[in-house]
Amino acid sequence: MKGLLNKKSGRMVAYEAFVSRVKEHAYHLFRKQGFLCGEAVLISMNEAFQIGLSQEQALAMAAPFCEGLGQSGCLCGAVSGAMIACGLLLIKPNKRRRRKMARKIAQCLQMEFKNGHGSVCCRVLTKKVKGDKKAHLEHCAGLTVLAAETAARLVLEEQRIFRILPRLFQ
Question: How sure is the predictor about 65, in pLDDT bands with cuts at 50, 70 and 90?
């Protein structure tokens, strides 16, 4: 039992370390490298989960969704980037049945945001920081980190990838 517990504990440490790296990288991309919310989330997920996109491809996919779907203020770009990443990771060619599961993941992601922030709408999420560029950036950095973290956890749990995580860090 003790060996099993240590093995499980090791997996959980690796799981949390992996999620932490995804979050930190998304934050770094957003705050230090100038990527927008959705771009930072998709690039971070792409690199962490080895989706196989170049950084330019990930940027091209996520760019139209940033700032609330092309500056419309609608769906939060960070949520959009997370949903793109989840779709790429969870729907494989010739696996149409996985689409339903990907929509469930999208619902979970939306619920996480709604529970924590009351909305997934960029306009609503940024209302209190409108006009204060510094506060806006920091607020959106937090949303970017939350989207990356939530997407990573949902994918790991769905794919049971955390079983192999210790090998990824050796």
Answer: confident
Our CA angle for 79, 143, 88, nearest 5°, is 30
**Helices (H), strands (E): how many in the chain?**
9, 0
By the 8 A CB rule, do 38 and 148 touch? no
Per-residue pLDDT of 97-115, as tens digits, reads 677 777 787 888 888 888 8
Q: Cα torsion at 60, 113, 34, 64 (round to 10°)?
A: 30
Q: What is the per-residue pLDDT for 8?
A: 57
Residues 6+ apart with CB under 8 A from 93: none
Per DSSP, 121 falls in state: B
Band of residue 17 on the pLDDT scale cut at 50, 70, 90: very high
For 44-59, b where at least 16 C-beta lie within 10 A, e where not — what string? Answer: bbbbbbebebeeeebb
Q: What are phi and psi of 75, to 5 degrees?
A: -50, 130
Average pLDDT value for residue range 7-11: 61
